[in-house]
Every structure is written in C-alpha cells, then in structure tokens.
C-alpha cells in the first residue's frame, strides 16, 4: 500500500508502530497527539512528521475527528494507533467515519495476496488469528508498548477540528501509582491461593527479599479488591517479561498466562500438581504456599547474611 | 426509561483446548453469558427495579437462546436474538450492524449498556461501533454509573487517570467488572424463565440485506487460527518445604536471576 499513518501520543515512543507500518506501506507518516505547548516526542524515521495539539481532556470524539480528517485528506489506507488508552474509544468511531475495517491489538501486519492481513489473539490468548482486511481502508491498533524513537525532526502543525462538545469532563484525578510492573526485572505475583488480606504481608516480604515488584491475578484486584489494578498481570492487566516471574497460588488460566508467558524464568508454587501454571513454568514447586514461602524467605535470608 | 443491554453468548475460554493436530475444539467448551455483560445486566436490572424497561439484544447461534434465558434471569423484560448461518463468520462490524438494527426496531432507547470486551473475540469494538452507527455518544470502561434526567455520568479509569464524564442520553456505555457484583443466578432461576421471552429474528425481519453478511462482503475475515504453545520443560520440586526452598534458592542463583 502507498500510505500508512501512525498515530501516537507525544512522550510515548512510536517506534513499534512505525516499524510495523513499514512492513506493509511504502510511505509512513507520523501524527503526534500533543498537549498545547507540550512535549512533541520523537518519530522513529517516519517519512513525515505532523503534530496536532489537543487539550488534556480532549474527548475521543475530537481525537477521532482530527485523525479521520487527516487520514482522509492524505489518502491513507492504514491508520495505525499506538497501544495507548486514549485511542481505545476513538478507534471504533474513527473506523465508522472512514468506512474502514477495524482491528484491535494487532501483533503483526503483512501484505497478503488479497490485501492487508493483521495477526491478533483470540480466546484469551490461547490462539492467534489472522484477520484478512476486506475494505480499502483499515484502522488498526497495535499491541506493543514503547520502542525507542530516534528522530526529533520538526513536525508540521495540523489544525484540530472544532470540539464536538459531546462529553463534559466533570473531574480528573491521577491515581497514585502503586506498582511499576512494566520493565521490572523480578516480579513476585500471587493469586487466590492466598487466603486473606493479612496473609499478603508474607508475599510482600518475599517480594522485598527478592527486590521484586508485587504482581497478582485478576481476582485479587477485581473480586477481593486487595490491590489496585496496576498490580494485575494478564490479558486485562499488564503484560510483563521479567527475568524472574514467581507465581504463588496462581492456577494459571490462559488470561493470566498471556500476560507473563514471555518471562525469562518462570517459577510456580502451587499445592495442586495438576495446576496449569506448571505447564509454563521452568521450575514448579508442589507445596503449600503457607509453608513454602516462609521457608523460601529463610533460604534467601540465609544467603544474604 | 428504556434500556437495551447487549449480551453475548460465549464459550468458556478457560475450557478451550486444541486437538493433537492443532485444531481448535471450541464446540466442546461450555457456553455462558460473557463475563462483562453480566455486570451490564446487573446494572440494568437495578435500574429496572426503579421502573426502567429492559430489553436484551444479542447476535448468536441457535444455542444462544439458552444463554438468553440466563441473561433474562438477572431481571429483564425480554430478549431479542438475531441469528442465522451467517453468524459463524460475522465480524465485530457485522455484529454491530445487526445490533443497531435491533436497537432501531425495538427503540427508542435512552441507554444502551454493554460489556467492555468479550471473552472470546476480545476486540473491544462492538459497543463503540454501535454508538457510531446510531450516532450517539459512547463511553467505555465504566466503574460507576449515575443515570439521571437527560444525561448519564460515568466514572472510569483511563490509564492511571480516574475521570468522571457526563454525556447526554441516549448513549452507549460499556462497563467493567468493577461496576458492581452481579447477583448469583441459580439453575432453577434460569429454568423458570419462559422461552417465550426470547424472540428470535433473522436478517430479513430486521430489514437487512443478507448479501451484505456473506463472508466475502464483511469488513474482515479470519483466514487462519493457530494455537499458541507456551509449554516449558519444567522441573518439579517436591518434598520438605525447607529442603525445596533451599534447592529453589540455589537454582535461581545458578540461573543468575537473583
Ligand atoms: C476476559 C477475561 C479477562 C481476564 N483477565 C485476567 C487477567 O488480566 N489476569 C488474571 O490473572 N486473570 C484474568 N482473568 C481470570 C482468569 O481466567 C482466572 O480466573 C484467574 O487468573 C484466576 O486467578 P487465580 O489463579 O488467583 O485463582 P484460582 O484460579 O482460584 O487459583 C488459585 C490457585 O491457588 C492454588 N492454591 C490454593 N491454596 C494454595 C496453597 N495453600 N498453597 C499453594 N497453592 C494454593 C490452587 O491450587 C489454585 O491453583 C480473565 C478472565 C476473563 C474471562
Ligand atoms: C470461528 C470464528 C470466526 C470468527 N471470525 C471473525 C472474523 O472474521 N472477524 C473478526 O473480527 N472476528 C471474528 N471472530 C470473533 C467474533 O466474531 C467476535 O467475537 C465478534 O465479531 C464480536 O467481537 P467481540 O466478541 O470481540 O466483541 P467486543 O467488541 O469485544 O464486545 C464488547 C461487548 O459488545 C457486546 N457484544 C459483542 N458481540 C455481541 C453479540 N454478538 N451479541 C450481543 N452483544 C455483543 C457485548 O456486550 C460485549 O461485552 C470469530 C470468532 C470465531 C469463533
């Protein structure tokens, strides 16, 4: 195809998007969404760079409108959106306004005999599907986080469209971040095998002893509500790939595995020898976490002393 | 107040297996109401207790009629299920087109509630596509809802920012699992729902052209599905906790990950 437009927020690296777009388009333009007067970010060797300024509480409708107008006037066949929360709501609106096919969380793009083919996960990550695009245009979001960008060439300004006024933002509040799982070298993660909120202290100690971040499965966040969502590993949480992932009392359902299966070394502690987590583990410890974790703390303490 | 709830019939994705030759065995998996949609149904049911009328809309195979009974058991007036052979290949865009036709036929609605994502497709597209087709506002990720007068207030998390937004009704809102705790539905309660509350319709009855839903006419087509293998050659440690803990610590040190 002739032209792909990669769209990302300023400050977030757009490297992955441009690399992906290069696989299927001969020309790649980068549209940066920036705050008024704010940082412009970098474009990793795109053929052209544009910037549009939108306020912090700009609505997805406005984002969709400006990207749609840009794609239309430049004649782009592919709009590739970064894996950033602000694009999630805008994507379907954008695809309808462009009459384009829509694909979310693509992990790969290729030019097939009949046009663009996107790869994405299906069934919680147990399968990969190839999705053939059957429209002249596609709006795709990709599943990759930041990849460093190197070019900071001047960007040509793009005028935002008039605000739609569809939504009123009544309040905005940045939540204090509790965990930074992304990029962590070691993660100790626990699940429903931990029976009470008080027992979490044992896991926190283990994480401290290993100089690891604290992760958890979905029920700990969404059902027990013991931890905030930035601790959650998996399909709806964070995707991580640390050197060491230690899973304690986690069964290993596919939606959890998909968030950690690329870790370098995976260790699982579970008292059920048939738990699926053992299938993806390098080392499996069959035992009661209430005995194994204190013992492990001792073994690690001994090493330190 | 009239509310439309989107409820999808899905296989239990934790039960999906691959045959030794790598074929997906979806058919054998038990089916149910999509996880997130249960929270939309619960919210609608609570609004119904204060006088709202609740209609459920779904696109799915004939077996989905059973799932509709489960959805109705949360507390809704009736369900409309659109189906036909075309459903097997339908993509999110086609699903949204049919759901829009149901919304128009059964409407007008003040509020459309949906789940944020489905467990099987995980496209997170249908509610937004539906809103764009109906020309109404769309807000996703609801963790709290306040419906009043002519507008709805939605609390949600966007990255690490919690925001409250207000949009005019009618609107499409998709919800997360943090919105509420759905009531527990017993098998008995599902059995008690009369099948007469589930109306099955086809494309023609919705005024849609079947030709537009042929596999080649859709916006996307799944051309291949392959399993993801993540098995590792694992080593199992069993025995006295103190011994295996020491062994594990030594191994991790040996691997250079401590
Ligand atoms: C659409 C969708 C998205 C999802 N997204 C995510 C996600 O992002 N992240 C996620 O984690 N899940 C996610 N899930 C949920 C997922 O399917 C599982 O339900 C969840 O991961 C299970 O959490 P768990 O392992 O803590 O609990 P359980 O499955 O209940 O497992 C607890 C484990 O602890 C073990 N255990 C119990 N007692 C002990 C003991 N004393 N010592 C040692 N072991 C013990 C048990 O043997 C069991 O294996 C999602 C599901 C859906 C449908
Ligand atoms: C064999 C097979 C082939 C497939 N082929 C394709 C394909 O060609 N292209 C493709 O993109 N996908 C395909 N899928 C995936 C499937 O079509 C999607 O699940 C469907 O299109 C809707 O997308 P979603 O489920 O991801 O919805 P999402 O957008 O993730 O759903 C969000 C919410 O929208 C509502 N909703 C979604 N769908 C329905 C529905 N049918 N009825 C009622 N409410 C609904 C629910 O409230 C749901 O919580 C295929 C799946 C299978 C098993």
Report on the structure:
The complex is a heterodimer of chains A (305) and B (258). Chain A is 24% helix and 30% strand. Chain A has 305 residues and is an alpha/beta fold. In chain A, strands 5-9-4-1-2-3-10 form a 7-stranded parallel β-sheet, sandwiched between helices. In chain A, strands 13-12-14-15-16 form a 5-stranded parallel β-sheet. In chain A, helix 2 (60-74) crosses helix 3. The radius of gyration of chain A is 22 Å and the shape is elongated. With 258 residues, chain B is α/β, with parallel strands linked by helices. Chain B is 27% helix and 31% strand. In chain B, strand 3 (17-18) and strand 4 (24-25) form a beta hairpin. In chain B, helix 3 (92-106) crosses helix 4. The N and C termini of chain B lie far apart (59 Å). The chains are: A alpha/beta (305), B alpha/beta (258). The interface between A and B is large, with 87 and 77 residues. The complex binds flavin-adenine dinucleotide (2 copies).
Which secondary structure elements does this structure contain, and how are they paired or packed?
The complex is a heterodimer of chains A (305) and B (258).
Chain A lengths: L2 E7 L5 H8 L4 E8 L13 E6 L6 H15 L3 E4 L3 H14 L2 E6 L1 E5 L2 E8 L4 E7 L4 E5 L13 E3 L8 E8 L11 E5 L9 H10 L3 E4 L1 H6 L20 E5 L5 H4 L7 E6 L12 E4 L2 H16 L1
Parallel strand pairs in A: 1-2, 1-4, 2-3, 3-10, 4-9, 5-9, 12-13, 12-14, 14-15, 15-16
Antiparallel strand pairs in A: 6-7, 7-8
Helix pairs in contact in A: 2-3, 4-7
Chain B lengths: L1 E5 L2 E3 L5 E2 L5 E2 L5 E3 L1 H15 L3 E7 L4 H9 L5 E5 L9 H15 L4 E5 L10 H9 L3 E11 L2 E8 L2 E8 L2 E5 L11 H6 L5 E4 L18 E8 L7 E3 L3 H15 L3
Parallel strand pairs in B: 1-6, 1-8, 6-7, 7-13, 8-12, 9-12
Antiparallel strand pairs in B: 2-5, 3-4, 9-10, 10-11
Helix pairs in contact in B: 3-4
The structure holds flavin-adenine dinucleotide (2 copies).
């Amino acid at each position: 195809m002739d032209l792909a437009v990669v769209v990302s927020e300023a400050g977030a690296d757009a490297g992955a998007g441009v690399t992906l777009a290069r696989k299927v388009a001969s020309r790649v333009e980068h549209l940066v969404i920036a705050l008024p007067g704010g940082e412009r970010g970098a474009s990793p060797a795109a053929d052209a760079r544009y910037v549009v300024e939108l306020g912090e509480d700009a609505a997805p409708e406005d984002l969709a409108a400006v990207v749609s107008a840009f794609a239309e006037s430049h004649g782009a066949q592919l709009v590739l959106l970064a894996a950033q929360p602000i694009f999630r709501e805008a994507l379907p609106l954008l695809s309808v306004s462009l009459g384009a096919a829509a694909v979310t969380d693509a992990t790969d793009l290729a030019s097939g005999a009949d046009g663009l083919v996107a790869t994405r996960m299906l069934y919680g990550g147990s399968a990969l599907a190839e999705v053939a695009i059957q429209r002249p245009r596609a709006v795709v979001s990709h599943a990759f986080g930041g990849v460093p960008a190197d070019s900071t060439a001047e960007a040509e300004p793009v005028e935002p469209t008039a605000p739609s006024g569809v939504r009123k933002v009544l309040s905005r509040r940045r939540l204090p971040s509790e965990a930074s799982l992304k990029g962590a070298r070691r993660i100790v993660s626990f699940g429903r095998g931990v029976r009470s909120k008080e027992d979490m202290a044992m896991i926190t100690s283990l994480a401290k002893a290993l100089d690891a971040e604290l992760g958890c499965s979905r029920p700990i966040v969404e059902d027990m509500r013991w931890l905030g969502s930035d601790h959650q590993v998996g399909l709806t949480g964070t995707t991580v790939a640390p050197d060491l992932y230690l899973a304690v009392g986690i069964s290993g359902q596919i939606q959890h595995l998909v968030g950690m299966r690329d870790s370098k070394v995976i260790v699982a502690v579970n008292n059920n020898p048939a738990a699926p987590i053992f299938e993806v583990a390098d080392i499996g410890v069959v035992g009661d976490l209430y005995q194994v974790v204190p013992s492990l703390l001792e073994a690690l303490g001994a090493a330190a002393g | 107040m009239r509310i439309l709830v989107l409820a999808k019939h899905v296989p239990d994705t934790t039960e999906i297996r691959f045959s030794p030759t790598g074929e997906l065995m979806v058919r054998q998996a038990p089916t149910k109401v999509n996880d997130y949609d249960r929270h939309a149904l619960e919210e609608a049911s609570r609004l119904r207790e204060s006088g709202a009328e609740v209609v459920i809309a779904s696109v799915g195979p004939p077996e989905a009629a059973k799932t509709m009974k489960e959805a109705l058991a949360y507390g809704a007036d009736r369900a409309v299920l659109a189906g036909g052979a075309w459903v097997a290949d339908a993509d999110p865009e086609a699903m949204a087109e049919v759901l829009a036709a149901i919304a128009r036929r059964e409407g007008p609605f003040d509020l459309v509630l949906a789940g944020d994502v489905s467990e099987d497709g995980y496209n997170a597209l249908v509610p937004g596509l539906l809103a764009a087709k109906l020309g109404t506002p769309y807000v996703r990720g609801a963790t709290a809802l306040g419906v009043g007068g002519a507008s709805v207030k939605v609390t949600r998390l966007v990255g690490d920012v919690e925001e409250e937004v207000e949009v005019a009704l009618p609107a499409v809102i998709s919800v997360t699992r943090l919105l509420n705790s759905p009531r527990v539905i017993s098998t008995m309660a599902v059995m008690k729902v009369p099948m007469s509350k589930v109306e099955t319709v086809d494309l023609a009855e919705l005024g849609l052209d079947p030709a537009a839903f042929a596999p080649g006419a859709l916006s996307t087509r799944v051309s291949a599905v392959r399993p993801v293998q993540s098995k590792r050659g694992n080593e199992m440690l069993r025995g006295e906790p103190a011994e295996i803990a020491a062994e594990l610590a030594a191994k991790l040190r040996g691997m250079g990950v401590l």
